[in-house]
Amino acid sequence: RMGRPPPAGLKSPTRARPSQAQQEELQALRQKLREATSEVNDLTESVEKLAQEKQEMRELLDEYKQTNRLNTNTLLKQEEAWKEVAQQKEHLSLSSSSELRALRERLEEAESALSRAEARESDLKERHRKMTLECQHLNEENSALSLRASREREARIRGMRGPDSSEELQRARAEAAEHKLRVEKQQREIKSLQDSAALLRQELEVMSGAQERQRRQERRQESSASNRLLSAEIAN
Question: Which segments of the protein form a coiled coil according to its record (predicted)?
């Protein structure tokens, strides 16, 4: 009934003051309550810290599991890669030996063909040199014959007199015609030799180009073989 006003005509009862012992007991209880409240607060804070640490531990555990899965996948991939490298190494070892044998055979064939081509080139150069000398000789002979015939005609014409001048003139003309035929024949021979020399030069140019292409091809093959061997060594 506390909180209600007293009935009319009645006085409100007065509370008795607590005794000294009760006050001391009340103060002691209040002190214990404060200590218990402080202890509860400390425990609450400790519980919150433990919950936070537990959450952090869970996050670390999840991260560790994720990292472990990644490491496991990486190890599996590395193992597969090493197996593939070992297979490639074995295949490369087998194929490189056969390719090297084939390459050596091709190089030997190329060297033999190059030797034959060089011998052919030397022979063609010698033939060209001889034809050039022969052309020079024919030109010199042609010039000498022309000069000699011209001088003989002039001498005969200057020496013509009397009744036999007509016969000498006819003989000089016949010799001149014969000389002209010889000159034309020599010119045809010179032209034939020059044409042959031109063909020889063309053939030499073609052979030189073929030899250069052969050398480039050999260098490419050697470079390719070296690259394959280097790859095999790197794989090893």
Answer: 166-203
DSSP, res 12: P
Residues 197/133, Cβ–Cβ less than 8 Å: no
Q: How many CA atoms lie within 13 A of 117 on its CB side?
A: 19
Sign of the dihedral defined by the CA atoms of residues 123, 126, 130, 135, in that order? positive
Full set of structural domains in the chain with CATH: 38-235 (1.10.287)
> For 82-133, how does the pLDDT look when each residue is reduced to its tens digit (9 = 90+)?
888 888 877 777 776 777 788 778 778 877 877 777 787 777 778 778 877 8
Q: Which residue type sits at 166?
A: S
Q: In whole angstroms, what is the distance from residue 44 CA to residue 67 CA?
A: 34
Could you report the per-residue pLDDT of 39-78, keeping only the tens digit for each?
Answer: 899 889 888 888 888 898 888 888 888 888 888 888 888 8
Among 52-61, 139-148, 158-167, 203-212, the range of highest mean pLDDT: 52-61
Phi–psi pair at 108, nearest 5 degrees: -65, -40
221 by Cβ neighbours in 10 Å (0-12 / 13-18 / 19+) ranks as middle
